[in-house]
Each structure stands twice: as structure tokens, then as C-alpha cells.
Amino acid sequence: MIVEGAILDRSGPRAAYVRVQAGRIVEVGSIGCDSTRGRERRIRGIVTPAPVNGHTHLADFLSVREPPAGSLADLVRPPDGYKFRLLGSASPAAKRAAMHSALRWMERQGIGATLDFREEGIDGARLLRAAARGSSVRPVILGRPPAGEIAGPDLEALLEVADGIGISSVREESAARRRRFAQACRRSGKLWALHASESVRESPDDYLDPRPDLIVHLTRATTDDLLEVKSARATVAVCPRSNALFGRHPPLAEMERLGLPVMLGTDNGMLRPPTLFREAEFAYVASRLAHRPVSASFIARSLLVTPWDLLGHPDRATIEPGGPAPPLILRLPPEDPEYQIVTRAGEQVIVPPGSPDHRGSGR
Ligand SMILES: [Zn+2]
Questions:
Q1: Does the structure show a pLDDT above 90 at 360?
Q2: Could you tell me the distance, in angstroms and rounded to a whole number, from the CA of residue 289 to the centre of ligand 1?
Q3: pLDDT at 363
Q4: Ligand 1 centroid to 198 CA: how many Å?
Q5: Domains of the chain, CATH where assigned
Q6: Quick one: which of 3, 191, 259, 286 has the fewest CB in 10 Å?
Q7: Nearest-CA neighbor of 13 among 348, 354, 297?
Q8: Is the model's pLDDT at 274 over the cut of 60?
Q9: Ligand 1 center to 218 CA (angstroms)
Q10: Are 198 and 169 in contact (CB under 8 A)?
Q11: CA of 117 to the centre of ligand 1 (A)
Q12: C-alpha to C-alpha distance for 284 and 138, rounded to whole angstroms
């Protein structure tokens, strides 16, 4: 199949055609110059790398009801917030089914990977691995060590299953434990991540010690805080819909102005399904509502490029022949691709990776 229209990847948007066979890119070039001489089916659209969900708690998908009213702490604070009571009362099979279901939602949106904060220690990490077996969405599991003493071998065992460690925040973990976790992650080449400055401002002196690879939220961060995050070369995951539920707005425009590497995440699965494109549209609209507009280009990059750099797969953010993974194909107008992706993308315009079109079966 030939997609005629535009490419949007690390190098930005440009007019082009892309020829796809068996889900892989075999040819890229200027429109009208492809080698098939009209013998292959063609559609108009946009081709991008697979987007990445920068922050999830997929097991929270256990609850699909409207979340109870209450503060952020009532809902998600360990050890006995609403979500921890949900997790504590559910069977492993129910949690695995919830995560599987959340991953299916993401498959239908062409998501390539999700960075998931997986509570419940090694059992929790194992459960997500099991739930993701056979899925086209790669779970990047940021496991959470149990409270209290943890033996060295237990920490190593967690990091054998997980892709890193993700803690609640510096208020729940001592500096000594944080250093130990961060060191273990460095030693094994894995990611060290935490939530910070979500409901109240926390000091970068705390959350940047030791230096994290990934910081989630920073809703309450000041410009000076963001500058420190930038010099620490940490990537930030922002969850605008989750923040909005509690009346907050992340300083996305300031992050764009300062040039921080930002990803978007859909956060807790009990608050909403992991619909990343809706998150992107909300980020765009909400930034205007707050009179601090963020560009479509910055939001598109946060979905398609920045996460792959953090994950050590910069090649996955480029559309070129022989690329390492199937691209995302969207039946969208090729004009202004960044704006299309942010405001119009969704399941209804995605050519599913398993479809005959994607396989390129010709006419
Ligand atoms: Zn979170």
C-alpha cells in the first residue's frame, strides 16, 4: 500500500509518500515518484512513528465507575487511598484482566509502548508482563519496591522483571531508600522515576536527589524548578486531564519555552481509559483555556519522539525504509500534520496494523 500525504517524525512534518509492505516501510519519497506506477492501492494520509503513553497505572483500570469525589490524596495516596484499596481487594486474575483490557485500548490506537508505574513489588511487575504477553504495546514497567526493609537480592529480582523503579514521591520514600533504588537502576541500566510537585510544590533539591531519568507531573513547579530539571537532563511526563480533575493545570507552555523533553501520559486507569490522542487534544485546548498556549508541534513531539529517546530507541522516532517497527498510518488530511495529529487523531482514522491495507496486499 502507498500512503500519499505527509510524514511526521523526528525531522518534523513534510510532504511525502510512504510505501508499506507487511507492516514495514519499504519506500519513502516525493509524491508522484513511487516505483509502483499505480499498481498498488493508495490512500491519502499521514505516517508517523508509533506514539508512546508517557505515564499510566494500568491496573487501576480495575474500576470503570466514576471515581468518588475527594482530594488527590483520598484517591491515590499510598498506602490506603481509594486506588490502593481497589488493588488490595482484587484478585491477581482480576488485575491481570484489567491491565490486558487497558493494553487492548492502546493497541487500537496504535500505541507502541507505555511507561507504567506498577505498584505491588515483584508480583505486580510479573502480573503486567503476563498481561502484556502477545500485545503489540510494549509495557515499560517501573516497579515499586514494597515499604519497609528490602533485601538486596529482592531488589535485584524486581529489576530483573521490571524496566526500572517508579516511586510515589519523595514524601513517601526516605533519601536513603531513594539513593539505593537509583543506584540499583543505574547498575542495571534501568530507569529511575518518581512523581513530583503534583498537588503541592516540592523542592528540586529533594526530587532531583538522586537524579531521576523521569519525573511525572511537576504541576506546581516554578520556572526556576523547571530550569533545574532541565539541567539535570530529566524527562518530564505530564498528565493534563488527570491534573484538571483536581483543578490544576501543568505549566506546559513554560516547559515548551524552556525546551524540556516532555511526554504526555493518561495516568490512573480508574479515572479514564488510556486514550492518548484525547489527552493530546485536551492538552492543546486546556493550554488555551489557561491563556498559556502550547504549540501542536510540541505536543506531537511529546507523543512521537521524546519517549523513544528516553527509552533508548531514537531510531523508532524516524520514518524511513527498513525502520525497526511498524509505523502508524492515519487517514487524515496531510495539511498541517502536527495539528491533525493533536486535534483529529483517534481510533476512527487509524489503519489497524493487522489490516490487509497495512500488510500491503496490493489491489
Ligand atoms: Zn502516576
A1: no
A2: 24
A3: 38
A4: 9
A5: 2-49+318-359 (2.30.40.10), 52-310 (3.20.20.140)
A6: 259
A7: 297
A8: yes
A9: 11
A10: yes
A11: 7
A12: 26
Distance 140 CA to ligand 1 centre (A): 14
Residue 142 CA to ligand 1 center (angstroms) comes to: 11
Give 196 Cα–ligand 1 centroid separation in angstroms: 10
- Taking the C-alpha atoms of residue 140 and residue 131, their distance in angstroms, rounded to an integer, is 13
What helix, strand, coil percent values describe the chain, rounded to 5?
40, 20, 40
DSSP 3-state of 16: strand
Length of the chain: 363
Res 357 pLDDT > 70 = no
Q: Please name the residue that has the C-alpha cell 508499506.
A: 20
Q: Ligand 1 centroid to 202 CA: how many Å?
A: 16
User: How many angstroms separate the alpha carbon of residue 295 from the centre of ligand 1?
Assistant: 24
**Gap from CA of 343 to ligand 1 centroid (Å):** 24
Distance 56 CA to ligand 1 centre (A): 6
Helix (H, G, I), strand (E, B) or coil at 80: coil
Query: Residue 143: which pLDDT band, with cuts at 50, 70 and 90?
Result: very high
Q: How confident is the model at residue 77 (pLDDT cuts 50, 70, 90)?
A: confident
* pTM attached to this predicted model: 0.96
How far is ligand 1, taken at its centre, from the CA of residue 279, in Å? Answer: 15
State residue 73's pLDDT score: 86
- CA 303, CA 309: separation in Å to the nearest integer? 11
Whether 290 has a pLDDT exceeding 60, the answer reads yes
For the stretch 160-194, pLDDT in tens is 999 999 999 999 999 999 999 999 999 999 999 99
CA of 91 to the centre of ligand 1 (A): 22
Between the CA of 80 and the centroid of ligand 1 the distance, in Å, is 15
Q: What is the pLDDT of residue 68?
A: 85
Query: Could you give phi then psi for residue 85, rounded to 5 degrees?
Result: -70, -40
Give the angle subtended at the CA of 3 by the CAs of 137 and 15, to the nearest 5°: 105
